[in-house]
Amino acid sequence: MRYRVQAVVLLFLVCLLVLCPWPGETRELALEEVMAKAIVHSHALRIAAVDVEIREALLQEVRSQYYPRVSVRLNNEYRHLFDPESEVATIGDIVLAGEESTFQHSLVASVQYPLYDFGVRSHEYRSAQKGLAAERHRARSVLLEIKLRAVAAYAQALERMKRLDAAMRISSARMEIWRCM
Questions:
Q1: Cα distance from N-terminal residue to C-terminal residue, the chain
Q2: How far is CA 147 from CA 49, 51, 135, 142, in A?
Q3: pLDDT digits (tens, 9 = 90+) for 10-21
Q4: What SS3 state is found at 22?
Q5: Strand partners of residue 95
Q6: How far apart are CA 91 and CA 108, in angstroms?
């Protein structure tokens, strides 16, 4: 029994050694690589890009006010004449002369275009353009902020690496001096 427990523990340790990842290699990162990864993995930059897309869609929506409005409506209604002698029926907002059928069908198509709106559309369009420009400016500032943070983190890591390298050199030099004594 005791040997089985020892065998299981030994087998577990061997499996653990085989399956454990070995330590990774270290290398010096380039600033361009750090910047590229910071930009690719930035959620703030993704949010800013989506905000710019939203503003562009809003600008298209405001621009669509300059197009005429076309509407088509089909009405199918049961006609019941309260006054059978008049034979006039209303379907929706349309008045029709009477027919023999009790069902009325109508198709209404209309085109609307406001001729003058006292500058409301142009004001909304300019406002949407300014909003889009402001959102693009904010996206550029977010990108700049991400780049500044990446440079600061890179500088801090580089400083720590240089300190560690200097400490290692000092330690090896002290070991050499100690061995010589």
A1: 56
A2: 16, 20, 18, 9
A3: 777 666 666 666
A4: coil
A5: 90
A6: 11
